[in-house]
Amino acid sequence: MRLTRPMxxxxxxxxxxxxxxxxxxxxxxxxxxxxxxxxxxxxxxxxKCDPNMQTDADTIRQAICKTGKEKYILAxxxxxxxxxxxxxxxxxxxxxxxxxxxxxxxxxxxxxxxxRGELGGDIEIGTDHSGGHSGGHSASxxx
Length: 143
Known about the structure:
The chain is built from four helices and six strands; from the N terminus they run ααβββαββαβ. It has helices at residues 5-19, 40-46, 80-90, 109-119; strands at 52-56, 60-67, 70-77, 96-100, 103-107, 122-125. The longest helix has 15 residues, at 5-19. The chain is globular, with a radius of gyration of 15 Å.
């Protein structure tokens, strides 16, 4: 797959969010609404976000949104395939992804869980290879 500048910019933004630290966590399993659809502006309005546009290209549109003190990335894609390819690459940076049809929101676990109550969608978790602040498996094995 060929990486375009907008994809690289969004991937970089995801890396920044993933490296910024873990969310406070929470087992918010509230009732999930039907997954929202529409333009970036429509999704932002549903999420009560005033989007700060970062990328406005034919294949991907990206904005930074704020909820309280937390920031998250909201992106829409021209095709399902483009979205899935982007997610598959971005998940290598860790992070939490709220995924809808041709859109994704990326942020801390608590932000993504709260957004799910507004936008619906499915939560996907990236793979954190840094071994930094994650619990459990980051300890070295001696044998």
